[in-house]
Amino acid sequence: MLKLHKISARIAGITVLREIELVLPPGQLIAVVGRNGAGKTTLLRAIMGLLPISAGRITLDGIDLGGAPGHRRPSLGLGYAPEDRVIYPTFSVEENLRLPCEVLGLPQREIAQRLERVIDVVPQLAPMLSRSGAALSGGQGKMAALGRALMVGTRYVLLDEPFQGLAPVLANQYAESLQRLHLSDKSLCIIVTESNRSLLRDLPDDTLTLERGELQSSPVETS
Ligand SMILES: Nc1ncnc2c1ncn2[C@@H]1O[C@H](COP(=O)(O)OP(=O)(O)OP(=O)(O)O)[C@@H](O)[C@H]1O
Ligand SMILES: [Mg+2]
Questions:
Q1: In this structure, is residue 64 part of a structural domain?
Q2: CA of 38 to the centre of ligand 1 (A)
Q3: Ligand 1 in reach of 11 Cβ (< 6 A)
Q4: Model pLDDT for residues 104-159, shown as the tens digit of each residue
Q5: Is the pTM of this model over 0.90?
Q6: Which mutation among 7, 11, 47 tests ligand 1's pocket best, with the greatest number of atoms within 8 A of CB?
Q7: Is 90 in the pocket of ligand 1 (CB under 6 A)?
């Protein structure tokens, strides 16, 4: 289980996460809601080891992740779809999906099985596989980024504001994919951030509110 023990983080000398205490159990879909600048992206980046924490500890199954730099965290089963999706335009969608598994050196058979499972969860990706990453719309890129996060995120999937900017049809498909994933894999923990909680519908099992880098114990309305 992933646990955040009073973690703080600073960017450019300013504290942007303050003593975040959080337990992320398997099988849960957890939303982190907060206004722009609240620290949502910073929180996910800290969990992924892409930003140093200035205080506290992050542990996975009791082991301190301090010794696991960002490039090693995917090998622990942590997948991340950043806000700005980062789909490589010179690669096909399938190559984009396979890439993190190739980097981990997984056997081809395992990669093929994972790809098959991802297509089951996000069927809209099937007809896109051979297309160039450059040929995707913004919304399609978000679906591809979800698929890529799922390829390595066998234990934890962190999705940064996935619903932002999605047209209603794609938002519905994205929500259905998350629901399918949540129902089909009871060992997976899905963490989704949003600034607008209504976009999350009734997907989350639990909704946490982040305000100015602090987790609030009681929900705060964020429109
Ligand atoms: N590269 C940076 N340089 C300086 N300050 C930064 C940088 N990145 C983030 N910050 C600051 O850290 C705080 C948290 O930013 P963060 O991006 O985590 O917020 P967020 O909740 O993801 O916001 P949004 O909803 O706009 O994505 C903000 O006050 C922001 O101004
Ligand atoms: Mg953000």
A1: yes
A2: 7
A3: yes
A4: 999 999 999 999 999 999 999 999 999 999 999 989 999 999 999 999 999 999 99
A5: yes
A6: 11
A7: no
Residue with tokens 């509110």: 209
Q: Is there a domain that residue 175 lies in?
A: yes
> Whose alpha carbon is nearest atom 24 of ligand 1?
36
DSSP 8-state class, residue 92: B
String of DSSP letters for 98-146 = HHHHHHHT--HHHHHHHHHHHHHH-GGGGGGTTSBGGG--HHHHHHHHH
Model confidence at 85: pLDDT above 90:
no
> Is residue 195 within 6 Å of ligand 1 at its C-beta?
yes
- Residue 198 makes CB contacts below 8 A (sequence gap 6+) with none
- The CB density around residue 48, as the number of other CB atoms within 10 Å, is 20
116 in a structural domain? yes
- Total domain count for the chain? 1
In a domain, 222, yes or no: no
Q: State if residue 42 touches ligand 1 by the CB under 6 angstroms criterion.
A: yes
Is residue 124 in contact with ligand 1, taking CB distance under 6 Å? no
Range of the domain at 56: 2-216
**Mean pLDDT score across all residues of the chain:** 94
Q: Supply the CATH number for residue 166's domain.
A: 3.40.50.300
Ligand 1 atom having least distance to the Cα of 38: 21
